[in-house]
Design a protein that fits this description.
Number of strands: 3
Number of domains: 3
CATH class of the largest domain: Mainly Alpha
Shape: elongated
């Protein structure tokens, strides 16, 4: 018996994942997998609703009514929050736009799907970051008397210096590091975008000392990963999260306020952004430094730090934080506005 030919939906899904997302959009493997997860959930729901197996679904099964039912299922049946629900809808939007450019015969139906709005009410999660004293406490609790301790110190110092995503740091190879003046690292970010990031001389010295004691690499040393585990295998994001959690817990014994913070590897990236903002670096530079797709992402940090808000208030009313001069205001009609500002 000859196998059934793939449906129009099956053919387009293959093009979407093998050609469009990685080739034309230039998305990273992790981002492609997030699209895959969203569409797999939609396919399973639609197959159950249509009472047909997934492999027999057609493009015409992608209707606005079914997508709405799927989104309701995510919230009511799977307990997903608004942010997750909107992320799944975003993946469906991208797929529907892809189909609209290739299948004009179903353009009307696809336009209805594309027009489905995101649900309002998803609150932006608070940004977790470390103050300078907290970063110093974390680094001080790393035992630099061991090889693995020196690896951890170099890794976390580099992540704070550059604001690198954890996977960007773990993907670094020796050829990506320039230790001569001016020292810098080459980071491979989302969408296969490459950016150069300067590093402090002290960070360069840390990396130089760390690299000098690494065991000989198999093959070309320039191709060797910079950070590996005790067995010489690639260090994972989960491994980095575990290590950071251990050092944060140790630092929290010295700084109890850290216990209330939810710190993870991405928090070091947030810490870099906040530190740059406090130092007066402009948003455009920070956006390029961190490899953000646009300024809107960078602007989140201006809303995150209370010290920045205090600075903004002081700039608007510079005398707001100053002690009153000339005693208590007497209501004689003079400088009433100035008195109100100083209250």
């Amino acid at each position: 018996m000859r196998p059934a030919a793939p449906t129009d939906l099956g053919q387009e899904l293959v093009r979407f994942f093998e050609e469009f997302l990685p080739g034309q959009r230039g998305l990273s493997p992790n981002t492609v997998r997030s699209y895959r997860d969203a569409l797999v959930l939609w396919l399973q729901f639609t197959a159950a609703d249509a009472k047909r197996p997934v492999e027999r679904l057609q493009i015409r099964d992608l209707t606005a009514e079914r997508v709405i039912a799927f989104l309701n299922h995510l919230e009511a049946g799977r307990g997903n929050g608004i942010a997750t629900r909107n992320a799944r809808l975003g993946a469906i939007h991208v797929f529907a736009r892809f189909l609209a450019g290739r299948r004009p015969e179903v353009l009307g139906t696809l336009q209805q799907v594309i027009a489905l709005p995101y649900k309002r009410g998803a609150r932006e999660a608070p940004i977790s970051y470390l103050e300078r004293s907290e970063i110093e406490a974390v680094l001080q609790n790393i035992d630099r008397g061991t090889v693995l301790g020196r690896r951890d110190y170099a890794l976390f110092a580099l992540m704070f210096n550059t604001g690198a995503r954890v996977q960007e740091a773990l993907d670094l190879r020796r050829r990506d590091v320039r230790l001569e003046a001016p020292p810098q690292v080459r980071l491979h970010g989302k969408g296969n975008k490459v950016r150069l990031c300067p590093i402090w001389p002290v960070t360069a010295r840390l990396l130089d000392a760390y690299i000098q004691e690494l065991p000989p690499a198999d093959g070309d040393p320039a191709d060797a990963l910079l950070f590996t585990n005790a067995r010489g295998r690639p260090l994972t994001r989960f491994g980095v999260r575990y290590l950071l959690r251990r050092y944060v817990d140790a630092a929290a014994r010295q700084l109890p306020d850290m216990r209330d913070k939810s710190i993870h590897p991405h928090s070091l990236r947030h810490s870099t952004a906040i530190a740059l903002l406090k130092s007066g670096v402009d948003f455009a530079t920070i956006s390029q430094w961190l490899g953000h797709a646009g300024l809107n992402t960078t602007m989140r940090y201006a809303r995150a730090d209370i010290d920045l808000k205090r600075q903004a208030i002081a700039q608007v009313f510079p005398d707001a934080l100053a002690p009153p001069r000339g005693g208590r205001y007497q209501p004689d009609g003079r400088d009433l506005v100035g008195w109100l500002r100083r209250m």
